[in-house]
Amino acid sequence: QVQLVESGGGLVQAGGSLRLSCAASGRTDSVFAMGWFRQAPGKEREFVARIRWNGGSTYYADFVKGRFTISRDNAKNTVYLEMNTLKPDDTALYSCASQSFAKTWDSWGQGTRVTVSS
Questions:
Q1: Which of 32, 52, 81, 90 is most buried, with most CB under 10 Å away?
Q2: pLDDT above 70 covers what percent of the chain?
Q3: Strands 46-52 and 18-26
């Protein structure tokens, strides 16, 4: 089992930046990749970005390409989401998740809230 704790959310004006962190503990040797998801009020959860735990290859949802960057620090077992040029539509609860080698999203954090004001 992997435990995940997010931090770094907050209130920011449109055009601003935030960096989210996700600290992993437990069976991190079972992690194939880490991802960020978000859920806006009244909407379904959607995928944001993913990074391979080893190798570091990344994949992004189209709506964040060029604005968000996912990275990881394996020594700290931490994944980051650098968010730039934020828009009010980016307002959501952001959660990180770990993906197993079976490609299932097995563990989830409690989320950190991001609010972007216009």
A1: 81
A2: 100
A3: unpaired
56-83 pLDDT per residue, tens: 899 999 999 899 999 999 999 999 999 9
Nearest one of 113, 112, 109, 111 to 25, comparing CA atoms: 109
CB 80 within 8 A of CB 21: yes
Q: 101-106, long-range: CB within 8 Å, 24+ apart, which pairs?
A: 101/30, 101/32, 103/32, 105/35, 106/2
Give the residue from 79, 77, 92 showing the smallest Cα distance to 19. Answer: 79
DSSP state of 85: S
State which amino acid sits at residue 6.
E
Q: Is 43 helix (H, G, I), strand (E, B) or coil?
A: coil
- Round to whole Å and give the CA distance between 89 and 46: 13
Are the beta carbons of 26 and 3 closer than 8 angstroms? Answer: yes
